[in-house]
Design a protein that fits this description.
nine-stranded mixed β-sheet; 20 helices; 610 residues; globular
Amino acid sequence: MKVLGLSALYHDSAAALVDDGRIVAAAQEERFTRKKHDASFPVNAIRYCLSAAGVGLDAIDHVVFYDKPFLKFERLLETYLAMAPRGFRSFRTSLPIWLKEKLFQKKLISDELKKLYPGIDWTQKLLFSEHHQGHAASAYFPSPFDEAVVLTMDGVGEWTTSSVSIGRGSDLRMHKEIFFPHSIGLLYSAMTYYLGFKVNSGEYKVMGLAPYGVPKYKQKIIDHLMDLKDDGSFRLDLRHFDYLTGLRMTAEPFHALFGAPPRTPDQLLTQEHMDLAASIQAVTEEVMLRMTRSIATETGIKNLCLAGGVALNCVGNGKILRDGAFDQIWIQPAAGDAGGALGAALAGYHGYCKQPRTPVKGDAMQGSYLGPSFTDEEVESQLKEAGAKYQILSDDDLVKTTARHLSEGRALGWFQGRMEFGPRSLGARSILGDARSPKMQSVLNLKVKYRESFRPFAPAVLREDVSAWFDLDRDSPYMLLVADVLAKHRIAMTPEQEALFGIEKLNIARSTIPAVTHIDYSARIQTVHPETNPRFHALLTEMKRITGCPVIVNTSFNVRGEPIVGTPKDAFRCFMGTEIESLAVGNLLLLKEEQDPALKLNYETAFELD
């Protein structure tokens, strides 16, 4: 039985295909269209998934959409009616879009599928999953657990903003929910907006900025913005927010509470902004910890699965792990809306079609390497067409040469195997660097990624060596857990350095792997496994052999505002538009100094800022 899952028409459109319970393929539409967070119907992602399965659309038994649009419209309408006459401007803006497009999505989706395969009445094959039901399915069914509590948290689905489900065998049932407008995701997004970053993309920046501040506003947020209970449930004081009826996230009482209007994107970050970031991060962690402690006590279940946009808060995830309420934690790598496509497919397969789970070794995500791949012949054809100069190396020579380049301080583009599904590059579409270099973080941020200097980079580490470098003794294959660098690798700050202003501490080496050590000695860890990514594992093994260090910098292969590269041509353009010095695409190696200078591009201003 083949089930195709779709997320689309809001943000981060994607498609995923499940065949007899096995996840065959999954990809975000943005990787094909090159439009960040593309919300359009995922035609390209669908075509890829079908190609990966070797079938046509006529072989699909069911198509499952990740939302129920009538429930979402109900929430929109009831909210406006409850708040009337406030919010008429927002209502007038959104209602025509709903009446023209979103309310009748069954027809819209069916019409789009007919364009791909006109001979089928798609309304008979089309199903709809509730948003958080899909998130829960995406977390539980691929997990390695036969029994688990599933916690989902995001901005909002139809009505639900947080949910707890119980999974046992092939059965997944909703246990309890928190409903709109009370949302930890929207609270975090409101502070993201207040700090001058874009909602639905800038939340990563707030999390990265938080360690530079002190959470001195944590209690103020809890006292004035929310009513937080011991079990983690809460209600927001809606007077402070404008997302119900307005076209912005925060209202005047919010600004008065913190003594200033929202920061504009061009305004310099101050210590006050860093303290606010630290405070909202601390509140979010408090909510996550109260929730997980409560549901662990209530259910007695020892395994926890996480999904939804808030599950991408890897700092909070790390605190849940160390808190010990659960023995094991598994987090869906595509935890946001793109992962809703996979959740919809799995909810359709197991929930609607009542199909059993297929036992697998480890989890069923296959390292999240579920996207397109290219043969060396396809790579060579694309690079020739682009005018690239390259050499073709054996497997062994490629690994040895690129490891040497890393050890010499070169920034390396790494394009290998199947593309990752989800927001993280995991060693398939990555930019790599030497973690031992005290300059690598600023070089990659300012000269390669063209983004804020404070944003941290993640370490990729051999799984067998993770506990020798970090306070972590388990798998973290999806870069979704934060842990501290071990004390033996740290470099203590002097009193003079401690007295520096937040951002001024950035360029002070905090450990023997300074490029991946945040100012609080933390790191967002990816463990690399030979079973899921043998070539990446071989690269780290060679790096360890020649330097003694099994840790490298791993960041996504793109610049600020650009989707992660999807094809060899995309990789070459990014290579020529940045100061990446070496590029490995399959077995082809490119050096910047050997390329035609006329092909150089300016990527610094090529994309809209995120």
